[in-house]
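JOB MANIFEST
job_type = single_chain_structure
chain_count = 1
residues = 474
[input]
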Amino acid sequence: MMEQRQIFVLHVVMIFLLILLASHGCYSVKAEEKGGGEEGDRILKLPGQPTVSFHQFSGYVTVNQLAGRALFYWLTEAAQNPLTKPLVIWLNGGPGCSSVAYGASEEIGPFRINKTSSGLYINKFSWNTVANLLFLESPAGVGFSYTNRSSDLLDTGDRRTAKDSLEFVIRWLERFPRYKNRELYIAGESYAGHYVPQLAKEIMTYNTKTKHPINLKGIMVGNAVTDNYYDNLGTVTYWWSHAMISDQTYHQLISTCDFRHQKESDECESLYSYAMDQEFGNIDQYNIYAPPCNKSDGSSAATSSRTIRLPHRPHLAFRKYSGYDPCTEKYAEIYYNRPDVQKALHANKTGIPYKWTACSEVLNRNWNDTDVSILPIYRELMAHGIRVWVFSGDVDSVVPVTATRYALAQLKMTTKIPWYPWYVKKQVGGWTEVYEGLTFATVRGAGHEVPLFKPRAALQLFKSFLEGKPLPKS
């Protein structure tokens, strides 16, 4: 009789705890993860997807139980011999932009979305020809990733993003144990110039405290936000050197704007506005030589759709860091809001109270903390033997090659292989210099999203990075 009473009391307590968890939004997160292990995350086939030989998985990993923060991922395994290939985590920037929208759907992923958003077609230069690709929508609030604590959307920043991403990696490897000892690389672009090195640093710190270290081998970032002062200086210099602004505006920007201390100034803000509104003209700032995405009436949609700015830099022209949009972003926003697509991806099972968007303006405008410079992290990574590659599409005016070169020069590295042109298909793919601990490369004619504009050259760059070999000289 006593045992029955104890069992009854236990049942009541368990029911009470479940109700409590559900009321705090925590139980719904675990509901995302039903299915046990990786099999529950297997993608059978996406709507309109061509038949492929590789396996795909997607779903949620809870990174904070109390707040109900869960990050969405999409794994596309290597097309051949996935068990022998490394794992590459890809991050897009913003802050607030989706790796599914950009990295997976218009850059390095195996599929592209067609113009009617009715289906997909194969990207023959996909990076999953040589690696297993793990696209992560980070932080919570980006894409399908969510939080049950709405205040999280108003105070996210670099620090929480890095810690949540580390938690994601640890828990994801538990779900996919075959990847536990695999070589891991982290890659990304734009504001992921913060995310990628910061996550690498978190992994290095974690590895000093665990018996089961994560096998991090290297990082690669493209057109990367790196250092506030040199990014600003290099951007204005690029505009002037590419005849986008007048001599007068250039000299006024240099003399008026306090790039070093990031102080707000109405005069500086108005100078930036004047440069963009009066002197740039109707161009795509993410590729100054590409046509913008024009509306049916002939006006440009590019500028109006890119109103997001980098936090704590109110005077900058850094609009939505996601990348190039002669309209590809629109196809993604239609496709990933389709209920059948979300069902196939095991996404949005809890009914997120807003539409899936390529970038979250709320997150971007409320970014809480941002590193002034990433250069100290580069020094740490190089000192620990982590491979570091930095590349720049040379027709991007948002995070231009001049900004990156100014920033990297501050590391005062020893040159191993001096500047030379590298080749792809007997054409100059760009230029490169190899330093002790870091390789820098440009990609000729590429905009902000390098793999979108120069997919063949980007794949060559990626292969050389994985092999740890200099880019081909002929």
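[summary]
DSSP finds 15 helices and twelve strands in the chain.
Residues 2-23 form the longest helix (22 residues).
exit_status = 0
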